[in-house]
Specification:
20 helices; 7-stranded mixed sheet; 3 domains; cca-adding enzyme, domain 2; single chain; about 425 residues; Beta Polymerase, domain 2; globular; two-stranded parallel ribbon; alpha+beta
């Protein structure tokens, strides 16, 4: 089946509207790669010759928004989804670099020099991510760097010098290894050599970007193989130190077993890619160990110190990052519910808990791992909730992104009660 027939209608409509407005526009990056691999893309990136201001003029202020300082691009809102539309970039010349005082050690903090299609392809990260698809013309897959050949060979090769690419953006090292875990690729000799000598530079990336990448990995259906590749290439100790240090210990082994089962169930469509469950799954073994060090599989009985111990344990699990309180609360609530669902009889409050569905999923994973009785799950009603797909948003154009963006919850505006009419003021009688 031709690629054209596999594309979603929404990004196609965006591309066509840009072309009809007189600009070049192409589907680019991970979407083209995934389609050539026979996978359904989760993210659609669009590259165009239009500047962010011109893109916004095409789609209007209500349907688009310019974002970013380091890398200015445009969010286009189409139905329930958000699509990132980026302008063709080029490498800055020496004079332009001279005025960029915020670049540090070769890292690019601002990348807003616009260029041509060819220049844009030359500054991308890996050949398998540097292919464009011409939707409206007859050029088909536009490939300047033999990306299709590397795709068939399952090799991750940098566009240009990998040392320069990793210097410009250290997160590219993580994305290179992520491709290995996600698709079974292997690193080219040059990429592997550069990564081995430069992996410590991953710490130069902001903790918020690294946490975002970690969250994308955990929310995917390939979390365990990706983490295994990160551990093998020595990156996990910088990205998630606690998991790396506990890799072969009881907590790490159980966490990987839980992630493997969750990956399988997410891929089969039996579980949603909930961020709460994605974070709680590898966290549960560490909480089990912290709350009952003598026998982690016996779980814990809640007492006056449980909340403080659990909060401290969750903070230590993600000590590399400032974990948002929202996520910490969800992790704790889901994990707290697990021993309550294992108790007999199960309390009605536990069955009606807002996180019941995710806690039951964790119980099902534990039943499979420890070969517990199926009667445990039989006592827990299965809730099948149709979860609508979250609107997707692309990541940095330097690589592929899988993060889903949760739309802001809309609340119905309540009508104010009309104010009672003012009583007419009574004039004082004249004296």
């Amino acid at each position: 089946m031709p690629i054209r027939n596999k594309l979603k209608s929404e990004p196609c409509a965006i591309v066509r509207k840009l072309v009809e407005s007189g600009y070049e526009a192409y589907i680019v990056g991970g979407a083209v790669r995934d389609l050539l691999l026979g996978c359904e893309p989760k993210v659609y990136d669009i590259a165009t010759s239009a500047t962010p201001e011109e893109i916004r003029a095409v789609f209007g202020r209500r349907n688009s928004r310019i974002i970013g300082r380091r890398f200015r691009l445009t969010h286009v809102f189409f139905k329930k989804d958000i699509y990132e539309v980026s302008t063709f970039r080029r490498c800055p010349n020496a004079e332009e670099r001279r005025g960029r005082e915020d670049d540090q050690d070769g890292m690019i903090w601002r990348d807003n020099e616009f260029g041509t299609l060819e220049e844009d392809a030359a500054r991308r990260d890996f050949t398998v991510n540097a292919m464009y698809y011409d939707l409206t013309g007859d050029r088909g897959v536009i490939d300047f760097s033999s990306g299709q050949k590397d795709l068939k060979r399952k090799v991750v090769r940098a566009v240009g010098d990998p040392v320069q690419r990793f210097t410009e953006d250290p997160v590219r090292m993580l994305r290179a290894v992520k491709l290995c875990g996600q698709f079974g690729f292997h690193l080219s000799r040059e990429v592997k050599k550069a990564l081995t000598t430069m992996r410590e530079r991953i710490t130069l990336a902001s903790s918020s970007r690294l946490f975002e990448e970690l969250l994308k990995i955990l929310c995917s259906s390939k979390a365990e193989p990706i983490l295994s590749q990160l551990q093998a290439y020595g990156l996990l100790e910088y990205i998630w130190p606690v998991m790396s240090q506990s890799w072969d210990e009881s907590e790490g082994v159980l966490a990987r077993q839980l992630l493997s089962i969750r990956d399988r169930e997410v891929a089969a469509g039996n579980l949603s890619n909930s961020r709460g469950l994605a974070l709680a799954t590898p966290s549960l073994p560490f909480l089990m160990s912290a709350l009952n060090p003598q026998d982690m599989t016996a779980f814990w009985k809640r007492d006056a110190n449980t909340d403080a111990t659990a909060t401290k344990a969750i903070r230590l699990i993600f000590d590399r990052y400032a974990l948002p309180k929202f996520f910490a609360t969800r992790i704790r609530n889901i994990c707290y519910l697990v021993p309550r669902l294992l108790a007999r009889p199960v309390s009605p409050r536990a069955l009606n808990h807002i996180e019941y569905r995710h806690a039951r999923a964790l119980v099902a994973m534990l039943v499979e791992i420890f070969s517990w009785s199926d009667d445990i799950l039989a006592a827990l009603p299965e809730i099948s909730v149709a979860v609508p797909p979250l609107p997707v948003q692309s990541g940095d154009v330097t690589g592929d992104s899988e993060a889903a963006v949760v739309p802001a919850r809309t609340y119905k505006r309540r009508r104010r009660r009309p104010r009672p009419p003012r009583k007419p003021s009574v004039a004082s009688p004249e004296s």
